[in-house]
Each structure stands twice: as C-alpha cells, then as structure tokens.
Amino acid sequence: MPLLNHGRYHIINTWIENQDNNTQRVYVYAGEIAGPGGEGTSQGVVVVQVFRIMVKNSLAVSTFITATEHPTSIQAGPVKIIDAVGERLALQSVTNATKFYFDVPSRQFVSSLTAIVPTVPIPSSPLATPTPAP
C-alpha cells in the first residue's frame, strides 16, 4: 500500500509500473497540491513513489525507497494522466485542458511525448598539468 500523504494532495489518478524483474514498483500520482485547509490550489502536481518488492514466506513485502514531488510549471489546475508511451506520461489539466508531459525515469517535465531528455555528463577527472622544473 503506497504511503502517499492524502492530506497534502488531491489525487485524480495513478500510473503504476513494475521494474527490475518485478522487484521494484513505481507509482506515479497525478492531481493537485492541497491548500492548508484541504482546499484546491490550482497547482498541479505529479508525485513519484518507489518501493522495493520482496517475497518473504510466500508473501510480497513492499519497502518504501523514495518519493519525489513535481509541481507543474504553471498553476493550470489539477492534472490527470491521459496517456503513456513507455515511461513518458501525457497529463492534462482538468480545469482548462493544458497539456504537460512527464518523463518518469528522469523525474522531470519535458516538452512532448517524444522529447529527448538531456543527460548530465559525468565529469572527467582533471588531467595533470606538467610543471616546469625550477
């Protein structure tokens, strides 16, 4: 059972994927961030939670690994997942039909379902600079 804080969010729907030979489960929730009194805020959000799945005594046991919150770039109202292409999700505001695209592996919003996600280069170690002999 996911550990989502339902008081902090108004969730509309969920996308679930089993990964790593069914030993990890990713939950992606779409909706909006709730206000301090539980009211709507128009701030759309995607929440990603990851759990490790292990089998013990013939029972599946879930262990929480991580959770991340990703607000939409503009306050266009709560969002819902309307499509998925692989691990790229299409979301739409239920208020005004604004579309957003979320890349699950990189945990970021992107410009389209087919946008290339930039990768961060791994820094190489600095090369030694020869020093002239005195």
Q: Provide the β-strand percentage band.
A: over 45%
In the sheet with the most strands, the strands line up as 1-2-3-4
The count of DSSP E runs of length 2 or more, i.e. the number of strands, is 8
- State the separation between the terminal residues, measured CA to CA: 69 Å
Based on helices, strands and strand pairing, what is the structural class?
mainly beta
What count of helical segments does DSSP give?
0
Mean pLDDT: 87
Shape: globular
Main sheet makeup = 4 strands, antiparallel
Q: Number of folding domains?
A: 1
Give, in order, the helices and strands: EEEEEEEE
**Rg calc:** 20 Å
Oligomer: single chain
Task: Name the poorly predicted regions.
Answer: 124-131
What percent of residues adopt helix (DSSP H or I)? under 10%
